[in-house]
Amino acid sequence: MSVRGQFFFIHQLYKKNVVIYWLTNQNSSNASLTGEQKGQAHYASVRGEHVNPVFEASKDDPPHYDDGFSGNGYSNAEHRDLRPSVVSAFGHNTLDRAPNIDFYRNAGSVSGHRAIRPSLQELHDMFQKVSVNLSPATELGASLLITEKGGFVKFGWIKGVLVRCMLNIWGVMLFIRLSWVFGQAGAGLGVVIVLLSIVVTSVTCLSMSAICTNGVVRGGGAYYLISRSLGPEFGGSIGLIFAFANAVAVAMYVVGFAETVVDLLEENNAIMVDQQNDIRIVGCITVVLLLGISVAGMEWEAKAQIFLLIILLVAIANVFIGTVIPATKDKNSKGFFNYHESIISENFLPEFRDGETFFSVFAIFFPAATGILAGANISGDLKDPQAALPKGTLLAIFITGITYLGVALSATVVRDATGNLNDTIVEGMSCNFSAACDFGYDFSACATKKCSFGLMNNFQVMTMVSGFGPLIIAGTFSATLSSALASLVSAPKVFQALCKDNIYQGLKFFAKGHGKNNEPIRGYVLTFIIAVAFILIAELNTIAPIISNFFLASYALINFSCFHASYAKSPGWRPAYKYYNMWLSLFGALLCCVVMFVINWWAALLTYGIELLLYIYVTVKKPDVNWGSSTQAVTFISAVNNTLVLSGVDEHVKNFRPQCIVLTGAPKTRPALLDLAHSLTKNYGLFQPLSAHQGSRTDKLQELNTNLESHQAWLRSNKRKAFYAAVASDSLRNGSLSFLQAAGLGRLKPNTLMIGFKRDWRAAGAAAIQGYVGILHDAFDFEYGTVVLRISQGLDISHVIKANGKLTFSKYSKMLCDFQLKGEPFRPFLEGLTCTFLLSGPATLPQSAEMAKVNQRLVDASTQFQKKIGKGTIDVWWLFDDGGLTLLLPYILTTRKKWKDCKLRVFIAGQPGRIQQDKEEMESLLKKFRIKYAEISVVSDVSVRPSSESMKVFEDMIEPFRLHEGTKEMAQAESLRKDSPWKISDAELETFEEKTNLQIRLNELLQESSRAAKLIIVSMPIARKESVPDHLYMAWLDILTKNLPPTLLIRGNHKSVLTFYS
């Protein structure tokens, strides 16, 4: 069927109200698809919905950054079908795609669909060509066009940012507190207060502009900017504070509105209860009406804002007109005399009253400047946030700043006036109380009693000065209601964005949105409740400083975010807005902090205390988000710089710490090895679990890349501080060898190899034994300290994991659930409910109770280091001086919480005639090393010949691997030696008889003295290369550690790791 110009597939996603069209090029020729090509176009069923597996779009979900990639270039959760090649711009069929914006979108992009480019493996591996003749215009293959039913309501920079910011800045302070501010601070300091506010907001705006033009900005305002820049810890803490500040701001603006209404009621003798309670009543009624407008949707709210702006502009113009209209007698008596130099001269200097200071007045005024984030708070509802926010916000600051300075009435109204028309100067009277004396009025009565008029006393000065008073009342209503409305919209939007990111899981309830604009109805209700609570305070001068602290804290972090991102010099920091400076941003952050403490030091401490607690909470909870924050970038820079600094410093014995390569394979398969290595290195040194994937590199590459991230995530989720690494090689030895040579970076280089004992060495082939012993030889060659762990039950539990499905709990001690097997061997499997793990697929039940018991013992032994070790001893058999590693590692274990109840017992070899002397010398050495011990034992009978029973055990152990050439004819012996060069000859056994006897004897002594120890540490014997047969060496290690508690064989690199010098 031809697909020219037709929809190939249309499907309604009814849960997301999104229509998805798969289009093909209208100009395609021969557009008939084969059955195989149709197979490329199938839709996969995911979570009950049919979606294209390559694309995903959601407007409701928070943005998801693809921070994890497997080796094939795409996440493990994504499934790829065979891609068709297309005719490219280069004129031939190719899988390569031209650069396209859709390759760089997030999974939750709402502005377009996400496409996934071909992976490097798809291009590099053998290509199975499936050609579809598409033109270069559609070389993405098939496109997804997303059409929103009804669509979002999106705003431009004027309606969405400029108008909103101006309305929020021209708030309650403009009409009912600005005159009081200039009365208290005077014209000089009043201008300073306004300019200081402008400086703080302007610098913050520059920083905000840089941040918001460094990528797509979604809803969330200050929270979104800070969290995506500094990370969830800072963003989550300031997000709650900022949302709360906006909710309290609603109360402040509503109280300002209510004050004006109550003043009108008082003038008309219409007070309902009393002044304060009337403010509460009017405020609560007002906030209910505002809530109704907000819930109606952003479109209605925007229309209301435009209407209010028109009223506000007319009211401001009315004030300027009123100042030049000649004052009436009534206005003169209330202190208004138009523009006069004497008035501005008198009002220039400050006259703080009622305990006010410069900073207390600044604290009351500053909320008037805090509307700069009104546009950013609805960034998700803007058409182009990157362009709109800088332009609209800076212009709003400039316009409102000029307005505040121009509307200041210090040149027209005196500080105190009686309002009495009869308080005029009678001929012959002297008057020097104020500049009003120059105009025939004597307000000296205000010196002894509180007057009701003038800059200091009348909050409705602007109404009196204006050309038409009712317009100012309307302007006051407009300013307060518009600011309250903007804050009432901002707070839920910010809170919703915070809740969507699921940083505080208990707040997820408030993330849900409603309607085509995803309105946060639940957030509106919460904001309403907070606003009503603060409206009941009914005192504007009390509410304003609370908001000032919270907003200043937010501004400080926005400025610091810009500085931090610039300082990190991450290649991803490329803001389109260039008019910013990192040091100016830092100055802005410090200025905000200083102003906070000067305004009210205890409130500032409280604000930062709350922020610190929230920061700690988020840090401890570790939300599963990764936004590529500048904190990560700076951490990386610090790590690189510190590594370089370390590289320039010679190592010192006092700073030695074990840095281990641990051959665990998949980390979860050898928990005992992993847990013990973690105990040795946690907070001390480097820990690198290594998995060597054996086989062809081509065959193992996919497995290696796929598992790399999942194993690291497993380590992280199980709180193992380790760096998982994997190599693909034809053998375990070659893989380990390559890692031993190349591992590490500068001083962050491993110095210790940790490996499990090869328990099945007698059943393994000669090549496997040669490889295992070869790893130990390689470690000695490269001067690694070497540690071998042996547990009698074994270390590898991979077969148990495979048999019982995919574990979902981190603790292997719970692994076999209630697998007690006492009388009812399969009871847990039958009951099911008591099981502490879940199966990802059908489980393979044990074949017998005996097998189940074996598995239980294996799991118990493998998980013993995860539990707290009870009281007991760690027995250290320090037989050979290897630099001190054999003593240092058990000491480190005793510093761990799990091992703190274990005491060190040290065993050394000595001569029969000097036991006491050897003991005293060791006591002196340990005292100088400052290593605590419970007991020192000198073993004087190490050289005694082992018992015949022990010798028999050893002989039986090596019997299958001996040549016995002495009992055969020479030709036959030579043939055997040629066919099995790895076998142990009689000559070799005789040459190393003494060393063999030593290992057997040591096992007897260990059985006698350390059978009850929690852990045994023994100096590891060394086999000379090319001299000791591999099977003989394995027999030494086996007989030495046979039938013992968990045993560590340790051999340092014979360089001192202990010192008694300071």
Describe the structure concisely:
With 1062 residues, this protein is α/β, with parallel strands linked by helices. It contains 34 helices and 17 strands. Strand 5 and strand 6 (93-94) form a beta hairpin.
Could you walk me through the main structural features you see in this protein, from its secondary elements to its overall organization?
With 1062 residues, this protein is an alpha/beta fold. Helix 5 (178-212) crosses helix 12 (358-365) and helix 5 packs parallel to helix 17 (540-568).
- Coarse structural class: alpha/beta
Cα-atom Rg, whole angstroms? 40 Å
Quickly count the helices.
34
Main pleated sheet:
10 strands, mixed
Average pLDDT works out at 78
Strand order of the largest sheet: 10-9-8-11-12-17-16-13-14-15
Shape: elongated
Strand content: 5-15%
Give the N-terminus to C-terminus distance in angstroms. 86 Å
What is the count of β-strands?
A: 17
- Helical content stands at 40-55%
Low-confidence stretches: 1-82, 129-151, 806-846
Fill in the keyword field for this structure:
10-stranded mixed sheet; 8% strand; disordered N terminus; alpha/beta; 1062 residues
SSE layout:
Blueprint: E1 7-13, E2 18-23, H1 35-38, E3 44-46, E4 49-51, E5 86-87, E6 93-94, H2 120-124, E7 143-148, H3 157-169, H4 172-176, H5 178-212, H6 221-230, H7 232-267, H8 275-295, H9 298-324, H10 329-333, H11 341-348, H12 358-365, H13 385-407, H14 461-465, H15 469-500, H16 521-535, H17 540-568, H18 582-599, H19 601-621, H20 630-647, E8 660-663, H21 671-681, E9 687-694, H22 697-717, E10 725-729, H23 732-742, E11 752-756, H24 766-781, E12 785-790, H25 798-803, H26 827-831, H27 849-862, E13 872-877, H28 885-894, E14 902-909, H29 915-929, E15 935-939, H30 948-958, H31 970-979, H32 986-991, H33 993-1009, E16 1015-1019, H34 1030-1041, E17 1047-1051
Parallel strand pairs: 8-9, 8-11, 9-10, 11-12, 13-14, 13-16, 14-15, 16-17
Antiparallel strand pairs: 1-2, 2-7, 3-4, 5-6, 12-17
Helix pairs in contact: 3-9, 3-13, 3-15, 5-12, 5-13, 5-17, 5-18, 6-7, 6-15, 6-17, 7-8, 7-15, 7-16, 7-17, 7-19, 8-15, 8-16, 9-15, 12-17, 15-16, 17-18, 17-19, 17-20, 18-19, 23-24, 24-34, 30-34, 33-34
Catalytic activity: K(+)(out) + 2 chloride(out) + Na(+)(out) = K(+)(in) + 2 chloride(in) + Na(+)(in)
Organism: Denticeps clupeoides
Subcellular location: Cell membrane
